[in-house]
Specification:
about 90 residues, two-stranded antiparallel ribbon
């Protein structure tokens, strides 16, 4: 049962980070495009290839890059909430 909750928690966290990262990427990085999830590429293997890839004449963010943007944004939001609660009392 613990494994099921762990898998569900990870899926929810990754989904939340992806959605948050995609929203931020579209607003803050308009020069990099975001493909629909079904067409996106994932960075393969352990080889570093950067945060974007070229497709045609445009650069697109990897799925992991979008999730990383979401994780960083989530950390900032949680840190801001902690600071607000801590200094409000």
């Amino acid at each position: 049962m613990k494994v099921v909750f762990e898998i569900l928690g990870q899926a929810l966290f990754e989904g939340l980070c992806y959605v948050l990262g995609k929203a931020i990427a579209v607003v803050l990085f308009p020069f990099w495009r975001v493909e629909p999830l079904s067409e996106q590429r994932s960075s393969s293997g352990w080889e570093w290839r950067g945060f974007t890839y070229q497709k045609g004449r445009h650069r697109y963010l990897y799925t992991e890059s979008i999730q990383l943007i979401g994780v960083v944004a989530l950390i900032f939001v949680l840190a801001a909430l902690v600071l607000i609660v801590r200094h409000a009392t």
